[in-house]
Amino acid sequence: MAKTIIHTDRAPAAIGAYSQAVRAGDTVYLSGQIPLDPATMQLVDGIEAQIHQVFKNLSAVCEAAGGSLNDLVKLNVYLTDLSHFARVNEIMSQYVSEPFPARAAVGVASLPRGALVEAEGVLVF
């Protein structure tokens, strides 16, 4: 099966050896997005702004792949402080409509660039 690399300037450029997303057939695998402003490549400040930025970045990559966040079938969210989980739920509902995708929330010791949140997902068309 052929794979297609997905890239958009509306999301942060990769900061390592990975693509923003890869499409294989009807499935798109989204790499983890941290809350970098794509224009400056700097982290935004504060947990709420970081959660919003992560969903904006994911949305931009979804759109570059020809879909939207509503095409997500699986979403993994990584938090350095699980007490922010309720805020993720509240903010996520502003970007993703029901029925919601399958999801995991994982507490981690640290994330790249000192981010407080990261998310990755899988889309199916």
Automatic annotation (TrEMBL):
GO terms for cellular component: cytosol. One of its GO terms (molecular function) is deaminase activity. It comes from the Bacteria. InterPro entries: RidA, RutC-like_sf, YjgF/YER057c/UK114. It holds the Pfam family Ribonuc_L-PSP. PANTHER family: 2-IMINOBUTANOATE/2-IMINOPROPANOATE DEAMINASE RIDA, 2-IMINOBUTANOATE_2-IMINOPROPANOATE DEAMINASE. Belongs to the RutC family. This is Putative translational inhibitor protein. It comes from Laribacter hongkongensis.
